[in-house]
Each structure stands twice: as C-alpha cells, then as structure tokens.
Design brief:
Elements (H helix, E strand, L loop, with lengths): L1 H14 L4 H5 L7 H5 L9 H8 L3 E5 L5 E4 L2 E4 L8 E7 L2 E6 L2 E11 L4 E10 L22 E2 L27
Antiparallel strand pairs: 1-4, 2-3, 3-8, 4-5, 5-6, 6-7
Length: 177
C-alpha cells in the first residue's frame, strides 16, 4: 500500500508541475494536467490483462546448461539456473526470458499470432544477474556469438506395413524342352 500511495503522490505532483518540454514549446499552461485535460488511459481488470498477455507466455524448464526450447528453437537463457522453470514472454518483436521478475536474456523474434508460434529467434542479449553461475564462463556470449539452434520436428512416420515375403521354391521345376 505504501508503494501504491507513493506512486499516486508522484502522479499528482508530476501532472500539476510545469513540464520543461511544455515550457520550451511555450504552451500557455505548461502543466501536463491542463494540456491533456481529462484524457485518461484504459483500465483493465487483472483477469483481462492476464487473458490478453497469456497468449505469449511460455513456462519452460532450462536444461543443465541453462538452455530452453520454444517451438523447435533451442537457445541459451542462463547457465546459473540449471533445471529451473523460467518464463518466456513474447511481446512485439522481443522474446524475454524472466525468472523471479528479473530479465535474464532477450532475443529478437517473429511471432505468428494466428498460429501462436515463434517463427524466428536471433540476436541474443544477456544480462548480469544475481543468478549467474559463480564459476563464470570461459568465453562470454555476445549477440553476434549467441547460437540459436532450429530443430525441426521429426515427421510423423506411419508404421510401414510389412511386405509379404515371396515364398521361395525348395525345388525348381524345369519344363522339358
């Protein structure tokens, strides 16, 4: 409740204080509340927000190397969190790996809303976090060196029907000429 009250106090102060950008533009009233009037954003319920954003949330378990797989793409998240559930969040063209409200890694991606599937992942960015392995890495990763593997799903093979074996003759009959 303290944080909420501090936030509300900040908004009230911000909206009623002359804004430097509005002063430079020589607005008659450089106060944001006067400029914006009664304009307000939309308020959504928590359930509605959860429904809107849940389409692009993917919980995944890291492997022993700190990598995850999402829609046939295998990529690095954080080596300091082996076999740990992380949340992959796709928003716009960004894919973020998050654990305990901390962004571990970001990738550029393309997400197909209609099919609800990631179509491309590349250019990883990794952050120093409190979860980093105490051992460290021999060679740190940068966006140009981050490796994203695409593993196409194997085609579903239909079981092969056995060919009927042709009966071989024990003796061959020769026709007299």
């Amino acid at each position: 409740m303290e944080f909420e009250q501090a936030h509300q106090d900040f908004l009230k102060l911000y909206n009623t204080t002359a804004h430097q950008g509005l002063l430079q533009e020589q607005f008659e009233s450089p106060i944001p509340l006067d400029v914006l009037g009664e304009a307000k954003g939309r308020l959504y319920t928590l359930e509605e927000l959860e429904r809107k954003f849940s389409r692009a949330l993917f919980p995944r378990i890291t492997n022993r190397h700190g990598c995850v797989t999402l829609h046939s793409y295998h990529f690095y998240v954080e080596a300091g969190l082996p076999k740990t559930q992380v949340l992959l969040w796709v928003y716009g063209t960004e894919l973020r790996a998050v654990f305990d409200n901390v962004v571990l890694a970001e990738y550029h991606c393309r997400y197909d809303l209609r099919h609800r599937q990631v179509k491309d992942i590349r250019d990883g960015s990794f952050y120093a976090t409190r979860f980093a392995s105490p051992q460290g890495t021999l060679i740190p990763l940068n966006p140009q060196e981050s490796l994203v593997l695409y593993r196409p799903r194997p085609l579903v093979h239909q079981p092969r029907l056995p060919f009927p074996a042709q009966q071989l003759w024990l003796f061959e009959r020769v026709q007299p000429a």
